[in-house]
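Please review this one:
***
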Amino acid sequence: MDKFERIYEQMKNEDLDAILVSDGYNMRYISGFTGATGYLLITNKSKKLFTDSRYTIAAMAQAQEFEVITVDGGRNYPKFLNEVLNDEKIANLGFEGGNLTYEAVLSLKDKLEVKKFKPLSKDLSILRRVKRPDEVENLKMAEHIGDIAFGEILHHIKPGVTEIELAAKLEYIMKTNGAEKLSFETIIASGVNSSKPHAEPGKKVIEKGDFVTMDFGCMYNGYCSDMTRTVVVGKASEEQKKVYNIVRTAQQEAIDMAKAGLPGKVYDKVARDVITKEGYGDYFGHGLGHSVGLEIHENPRFSQTEEDIVEPGTIMTIEPGIYIPGAFG
């Protein structure tokens, strides 16, 4: 069943005449349109893309299955949407409740000429969970660029260099090796800063004996990579070696058992049990991993509470961690 068949099935199940798509990632997945502003309107009769004149040419080239409608005046979307809604006699319109702000929902509800304007019961991002072969290839390429960057950045990690200098160099390497942009803000954390899972690179100077944790990624054809690596500058202490090897074992055991058909919390437990058994359970505060695709953090997750089944063809990260406040991570 292709993406449109699944959308039509959802419309039927939810008694909808049309769906208004506003989430940029879902718009790109469904139509191919990469612009920053617009809506898709999918009805039983037509597929239309509404955007302003800044994106019209790109939209016509990218979204060839959609009729592109240019919205005059920039933001007067309700006027142009209503022309189609009235022409096709749309009574029940679904929208992405997880994407639109409360203010936007109230405004659209007031201006759109439909009988019912209601949130979808199932997020359209569920369409993106199982990756097509072309998506897998894009993800592989994004990760390959990350591999190149990691190999090269190792030559630049030395005492006297600041975290922010390393971050800039890492990003430069990714972009000069084919990355179109970053998939998230680069994290470079050294010494005590590495105890913060989402530290921001700063002016701290790398010192001998520091753990340096790098969490970085890039985009290739819109698809994201995500890599976390930790190295030590100089010689590792016995505690650093111990913690590093516990994390590595936890990751490997989760990789070894990874297979489709299980709820996300099962994968998380495998890695978490390794860390907890070694006495560091209190220092692993986040989930084990997440799906990745057009968006850096997609569903399902590998977390302690994830009940969703991981389907064949889902791309997941496996990234356990130990973060000891005031020490390292």
Observations:
- Residues 133-153 form the longest helix (21 residues).
- The chain has a mean pLDDT of 96.
- The longest strand covers residues 211-216.
- Residues 214 and 229 are 5 Å apart (CA to CA).
